C-alpha cells in the first residue's frame, strides 16, 4: 500500500528550481533514508509532504489526499505526517509533558486527562517518563529531541518525517535518539529520514535515496548502494560523510 506519491512534483522558489519533476512512491512500513549534498532539496522534499511548503508543479498524494486539495485536506495530511526537526523546536515555556500533550488536545480534541495520559505513555516510550515536568532548557539536546519525537507521535501520524534529527547533537547523545528511531522502525512505522548516519541507514533503512539538484539520482537498497555506489558522485559524497 503506497502512502506517499510524488507525481512529477516540482518546487520552485522564484526562479530557483529545488525539486525537479520528482516521481517517488513510498509504501507503508518503508524506512526511506534520504541523503545528498547541502542544497539538493532534501528538506524541501520532506516539507512538501506535510504541507510546510506548497508544491509548484505536478502533484503529491499523502494517504490518499492531494496536498493541493485545500485547507481541510492539508490539515488532515499534517496529522498523518509527523515531523522532527534538527533544532527540536519544542515550546520553551511548556514542560516535556505539556509539549507532548499539546497536539492531542488541539488536534485530536482529547480532554486534558486523556491527553496527559497519552503524553505520559509516549514519554515513557522514549525513556523520559521521569522528565515529564522538566522544561526544555533543563533537558539535554538528546532528551529534547526524544521529547520532540514523542510530541510528533502524539497525534498518531501514519508517517514520521525526520530532518537531520541528530545533526545538532554530540556523538554520545546521537545514539539515544537513533535508538528511539530504531524502535519506531521495528514497530513498523513508515519513516522518511534525512541523515548523515550511514550505519543507521544500513541497519534500519529499507531504501536509500541520493538526491542531487532536486532530482533522485540513486534509489536502492541501503547496503548495496552504500557498499557499491552505482555512481561516482554518490561514491564521492559517501567518502565525505563517513
Ligand atoms: P537540503 O535540505 O538538501 O540542504 P533544501 O531543501 O533546504 O536543501 O534547499 C534546497 C534549495 O532551496 C537551496 O538552494 C535553498 O537555499 C533553497 N531554499 C530552501 N528554502 C527556501 C526558501 N524558503 N526560499 C528560498 N529558497 C529556499
Ligand atoms: Mg536540509
Describe the structure concisely.
The protein has one domain: 3-Layer(aba) Sandwich (Rossmann fold). The protein is built from nine helices and ten strands. It has helices spanning 42-49, 71-80, 96-106, 112-125, 141-153, 171-186, 198-204, 222-227, 232-241, and strands spanning 2-13, 16-27, 31-35, 57-62, 65-66, 81-84, 159-163, 190-194, 207-212, 215-220.
Poorly predicted segments: none
Strand order of the largest sheet: 6-7-8-3-9-10
CATH architecture descriptor: 3-Layer(aba) Sandwich
Q: What does the main sheet amount to? A: 6 strands, mixed
Q: Which class best fits the helix and strand makeup?
A: alpha/beta
What is CATH's topology name? Rossmann fold
**How much helix is in the residues?**
25-40%
Architecture overview:
The protein has 242 residues and is of the alpha/beta class. The chain starts with a strand and ends with a helix. Strand 4 (57-62) and strand 5 (65-66) form a beta hairpin. It has helices spanning 42-49, 71-80, 96-106, 112-125, 141-153, 171-186, 198-204, 222-227, 232-241; strands spanning 2-13, 16-27, 31-35, 57-62, 65-66, 81-84, 159-163, 190-194, 207-212, 215-220. Helix 3 packs across helix 4 (112-125), helix 3 (96-106) runs parallel beside helix 5 (141-153) and helix 5 (141-153) runs parallel beside helix 6. It is built from nine helices and ten strands. Strands 6-7-8-3-9-10 form a six-stranded mixed beta sheet, sandwiched between helices. A four-stranded antiparallel beta sheet has the order 2-1-4-5, with helices on one face. The longest helix has 16 residues, at 171-186. It has one domain (2-241): P-loop containing nucleotide triphosphate hydrolases (Rossmann fold, 3-Layer(aba) Sandwich). It is globular and about 50 Å long. Magnesium ion binds at residues 42-43, 163. Residues 4-238 form the ABC transporter domain. One of its GO terms (molecular function) is ATP binding. Keywords: ATP-binding, Nucleotide-binding, Transport. It holds the Pfam family ABC_tran. Belongs to the ABC transporter superfamily.
Amino acid at each position: 500500500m503506497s502512502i506517499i506519491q510524488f507525481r512529477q512534483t516540482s518546487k520552485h522558489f522564484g526562479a530557483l528550481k529545488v525539486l525537479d519533476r520528482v516521481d517517488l512512491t513510498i509504501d507503508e512500513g518503508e524506512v526511506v533514508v534520504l541523503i545528498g549534498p547541502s542544497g539538493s532539496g532534501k528538506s524541501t522534499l520532506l516539507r512538501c509532504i506535510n504541507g510546510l511548503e506548497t508544491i509548484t508543479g505536478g502533484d503529491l498524494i499523502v494517504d490518499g489526499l492531494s496536498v493541493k486539495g485545500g485547507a481541510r485536506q492539508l490539515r488532515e495530511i499534517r496529522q498523518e505526517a509527523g515531523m522532527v526537526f534538527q533544532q527540536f523546536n519544542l515550546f520553551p515555556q511548556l514542560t516535556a509533558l505539556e509539549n507532548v500533550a499539546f497536539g492531542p488536545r488541539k488536534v485530536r480534541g482529547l480532554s486534558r486527562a486523556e491527553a496527559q495520559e497519552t503524553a505520559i505513555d509516549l514519554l515513557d516510550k522514549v525513556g523520559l517518563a521521569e522528565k515529564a515536568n522538566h522544561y526544555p532548557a533543563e533537558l539535554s539536546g538528546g532528551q529534547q529531541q526524544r521529547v520532540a519525537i514523542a510530541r510528533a507521535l502524539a497525534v498518531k501520524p501514519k508517517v514520521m518525517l525526520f530532518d537531520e534529527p541528530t545533526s545538532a547533537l554530540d556523538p554520545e547523545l546521537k545514539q539515544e535518539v537513533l535508538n528511539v528511531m530504531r524502535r519506531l522502525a521495528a514497530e513498523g512505522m513508515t519513516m522518511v529520514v534525512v541523515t548523515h548516519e550511514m550505519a543507521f541507514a544500513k541497519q534500519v533503512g529499507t531504501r536509500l535515496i541520493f538526491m542531487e539538484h532536486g532530482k533522485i539520482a540513486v534509489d536502492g537498497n541501503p547496503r548495496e548502494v552504500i557498499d557499491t555506489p552505482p555512481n561516482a558522485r554518490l561514491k564521492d559524497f559517501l567518502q565525505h560523510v563517513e
